[in-house]
Amino acid sequence: MIKVNTEESPWRPGMTVRALLDEKLFTFRHIIVRINGEFVSEEDFEKQTIQDGDDVLVLHLMAGG
Amino acid sequence: MGTILKDYSYTPAKIKRGYSGKSLYINLADLRIEQKEITEFMKEKFTGGKGFDLWYLWHAITPETRWDSPENEIVMSVGPLGGITQYSGTGKTLLCAISPLTGIPIDSNVGGYFGPLLKFSGWDAFEIQGKADREILIFIDGNNGRIQIEDAAEYPEDAHLLAEELTKKYSENEDDMVNVSVACTGSGAKYGYMGMINFSFYDPRRKVCRFKQAARGGLGTILHDKKVKALVVKYRGVKPNLNDAADISTINKVGVKYHKEMHDLDQKQNKMRQIGTANTVMIMSQYDLLPTRNFQTGGDPETIKISPKVFIEEWLTQGLHDGCWYGCTMSCAKCADHFLLTTGPYAGQRVTVDGPEYECAAGLGANLGVFDPQAILEENFYCDTYGIDLISFATCTAFIMECYQRGQITQEQMGGLDLRFGNSQAVLELLHQMSRGEGFGRLAGLGIRKLKQIFVEQFGADPKLLQDIGMEVKGLEYSEYAHKESLAQQGGFAMATKGPQHDEAWLIFMDMVNKQIPTFEDKANALYYFPMFRTWFGLVGLCKLPWNDIVPADNHKTDSPAKVPEHVQNYVDLFNAVTGKNIDKEELIIQSERVYQFQRVFNVRMGKGERKDDYAPYRSLGPVTREEYLSRQELYDKQLREFQQLDPEAMGLDEKIAATRRYREDQYEQLMDAVYRRRGWTNNGIPTPERLKAIGMDLPELLEVIEPKL
Known about the structure:
The complex is a heterodimer. By secondary structure, chain A is mainly beta. In chain A, about 10% of the residues lie in helices and about 30% in strands. Chain A has a single domain (about 1-60), classed as Ubiquitin-like (UB roll) (Roll). In chain B, helix 1 crosses helix 2, helix 2 (about 50-60) packs parallel to helix 22 (about 585-605) and helix 11 (about 375-385) runs parallel beside helix 13 (about 425-435). Chain B contains 28 helices and 17 strands. Chain B folds into 3 domains: about 5-235, 4-Layer Sandwich (Aldehyde Ferredoxin Oxidoreductase,  A, domain 1); about 265-475, Orthogonal Bundle (Aldehyde Ferredoxin Oxidoreductase Protein, subunit A, domain 2), CATH 1.10.569; about 520-550 and about 585-710, Aldehyde Ferredoxin Oxidoreductase Protein, subunit A, domain 3 (Orthogonal Bundle). The radius of gyration of chain B is 24 Å and the shape is globular.
C-alpha cells in the first residue's frame, strides 16, 4: 500500500506517477507531486516509479473562480 | 437628446497616491449633487472599494431600510490601485447596496472601464440615493468637470442597444469611443429581484460595446427602481501614472515580471488567454464538482459537448486582446462574435456575446441539463442584455425544473412552460417572459426564497423538500460549484457574508482532493485566511483571477503553494508603490478583516448576521434523494462504515440516507463552531468586542449593534 494525500491506496510494482494519476482520475493539468517530500517534475511523471510504502502528495493548485 | 434636468460643474480632484480624496453624492429625489471628502479615517479603516461603499451605506440607511426604500444607496468605488495599467486585472469596481434578495448589504465586483474612468474623473466613490420622478441618465464628463442629469425616456432599455447609442452620443468620433463607459441594466431588471448592472468597455477591434457585470444580489433591480436608465462616464487621457504612484519603477518592475509569467506559462497552466474561466468546465465534471440538474450530481457524460475545446474551436474568437481594462495580459474576457440569435426580440440578428465564463457554462448549461453550446450562448446574451444575473437565474431555474420534475409544481402552474431539464427553448422563453414581465417569468425573477414560499402556499408543494433542494442562503442563490464532499466549501458558501458566492473562498481541491485541511481547525483557518485575503481585492480595485489562475513556475517550492506567496508579495509591493505606505502581508489581511468584520456587523444590524442565517440547504451538504444517494452509493456506504461504524449492508436505503444526513449536519455544526472561534465571533456568530478592538474596529456604532447580542 501507499499513501496518496494521507489516504491509503493500492500499490503495484512498476507503478509510475502518471499511472497513479490516471488511476485516481486526477486529470487537472496544474498538479504538484511530491513523493516522501521530494518534488517530482512533470517531465518525469512517465518514468518516476513509486515504491511500496511511499507517501505521495498530489496537490491540485486551484483555488477557484 | 433628452431634456437636461441638472447641470453641475466641478473641478476634478487631482489623484494623489491612488486616491482623489473626493466622493460624489447624487440624490435623485431633488437632483442634488454634492462632493464629500475621503477622510484619513476612511482610508485607514476601510482602505477603499467595498470598504468605502459599506461605510457610506451604513450612514445612509437604518435597520428598517428595505431595498426599495428611497434612502437605500447604490455605492461604487474602484479602490486605490484601480486604474493602474502595468499589472493585470486592475480595473475592478465594487458596488454595494441593500439587496432585494437578501435584505442585507450585497457586494458585487465588476470589470469594464466605468470605475477607473470615474476615478480619473475625480471620484474615489459614487453614492446614488433617492428615486427620480422620471427615467434619467447621469453623464459625468471627467475632462471638463461637468455632470449632467438628463431625461432618458427616449433611450432603449436593453443593454447592448443602450450602451451602443450612449457611447456614440457622448463620443466625438470613433477614436473617442474607448473613452466612454456606460453602466446600465436592461428590461429584465424591471420585474424581478435579480437585475444586474452592466459596465461597458468599447472594443475598437470588433467595433462593439462589450460588457462585464456587477451581477449578484439585484443591483440592477435597485438601479431600475431608482429610475436610472444609465450612468455614463467619459474621460480621455488614460496613461500609466494617473494614480500618482509613490514608486512607479516598482510598479513597472512587478508588472513586467507578471506579464512574462503570463506569456510563458498560461498555455501550460489554465489557458486563460484562450478560453477564460470556462477552462474548468471539464475538470469540474471529472472531479464531480460541476453542478448538474440543480446540484443533484457533480457532472454528466454529456459535458464533453460544452467542453473548452468545443467553445475554443467552434465559438470563441481567438487571437484578439480581450482584457476588460488596459494592461491586462490575462485577457480572459472572451467572446463569440457574429453569433446568430434564434429567439426573442432580436431573433435573426448577429451579435457579440461576452462569454461564456465558467459560471455561465456551468449554470446555464449543466445545472439546467443543457449541453448545447449554442443555447448556452443565447441564454448568456439575453441575460446580459436584459440585465439579469445569470447565476441567480440559472440556480433559480434549476430549482424550478427540479420542482416540476418531482411533481411539486405543474406545467399549468408555470403558464404552459415545459421546464424539463434540458429544454433550452423553455429556458429562453422564461428569460423573455422575465424581460416582458409576463407569465411565470415574472414570478421566477423573485428568486428561490420567495418561490419556495409561493410554491408551498399557492401550489401545495412540500416545504421540507423545497427547503432541502432550494439552493439559496440568506436569500441569495448559490454560484455554480457542486460541493457535497467538501465540508470546508459548504462553510465557504453558507457562512459567506453576503450569501453563497465563491469569491470569499474556494477550498474544494484543498479540502476534498488534496486533503490539506483535515481537521475542523484546519478548515477554520482556511475559512479565516482565504475570505480575508480575497476580500482585499475588492478594497483596492483588483481582479482575483491574476492571483492564482496563473502561478510562478517555482510556486511548488514554496511552503504554501495554495496562497501563491510570490503574487501576494506582488500585491504588497503594488499597494506600497501606489500609496507610499508600508504594509506587509500580515497587515494586508488586517486591512481586509476590518472591512469583513464591519460587513458582518452590518448584517447583524439588518437582522441577519447570526448563526441561524449561516445554515445551508441540505442539498449543499449531502444527498437529499434516493437517486442522489444511489449515484454515489459506493462512496456513501464507505463513509457509513468508516465514519460512523455502521453496516450499510444491514440498512435500508432511506435508513442510510437518514444516517448520512445526521452525520453531515453534525459535522457542519462543528465546522460552524470552529469557524466562529477562528473569526473571533461568539457561538451565535456575532463579532466580539475583543476581536474588533484587536483590529482597530471597536467603533462606537459597531459596539452599539453587537452589545445587545452578546
